[in-house]
């Protein structure tokens, strides 16, 4: 009994140490990055990483790189994690973060979602989203191979590598789909990561990224910053890696859930589902600024000076009423307006 209590206390201490190290490293990285944002191709850093949210207010995407840095530093310094698992976490987190960052900075709105990017690829057009999708798939498989499998046979280890790689990649993309409102992706990460933190094999993986993300949650909820593809892909990949430490049955269930939700995002708006559920909406709004007052509804048609009918202006509330799509976020933010505003 005493040995079990001591083991549990040591595991809790390592978990808290990992979360604390991730949080400190993320806050330090965020401070350094926002003081001197890195530029690109001659553009100033504020322009490279700056976006405009639904309120018309500026936000920065530098929360994402800071979370990646915090998760990487915390993961390397957290005591008690096996060496192969540390290497796999570094590969999954940094690799997915770099690919997400590429899509953040180079992405465009010409193709969206899995269907849009893979359709463009079939036509011979290589989009930044397609590069990210394929790259994160390869990164997930590589991280799964590095982490290893306890299966006794070669076939079993190969099956686990494919299964675990799919979980890492699917989780990376799904977390990106929740980065549509302030704090939502971090809340989803905490809710899904907390049970993994209680499991002995996966606790060492989730501590640092959750600590890093929670440390920057005030910036996210305050609509000063957002994870972007960089942070959300990395956070999702690391949670997926933690899930690969579960038994094979639970992993198959996790993969089925990830596949279903990723597929559903092509047709269903998670934002609308959350807004329509009182419990989910309450959690989603927790800590956020109150929604902005809706603009006065425009008349569906007006008359010009000659008495001719005039349709609503493109980009107005009438024209854009159905433009919210969660699969759009999976394609990458790119340049332009960030989806960090109110629901």
For the largest beta-sheet, the strand count, sense and barrel status come to: 2 strands, antiparallel
- N- and C-termini, Cα separation: 50 Å
In DSSP terms (H or I, runs of 4 or more residues), the helix count works out at: 15
Output the structural class. Answer: mainly alpha
Sheet with the most strands: spatial strand order: 1-2
Helix proportion range? 55-70%
How many discrete domains? Answer: 1
Q: How would you state the average pLDDT, rounded?
A: 83
Low-confidence segments, ≥5 residues, pLDDT <50? Answer: 303-343
Number of DSSP E strands:
4
Provide the gyration radius in Å: 21 Å
Order of helices and strands: HHEEHHHHHHHHHHHHEEH
Strand content: under 5%
Overall 3D form: globular
Protein name: UDP-N-acetylmuramyl pentapeptide phosphotransferase/UDP-N-acetylglucosamine-1-phosphate transferase
Signal peptide: 1-28
Keywords: Signal
Organism: Actinomadura hallensis
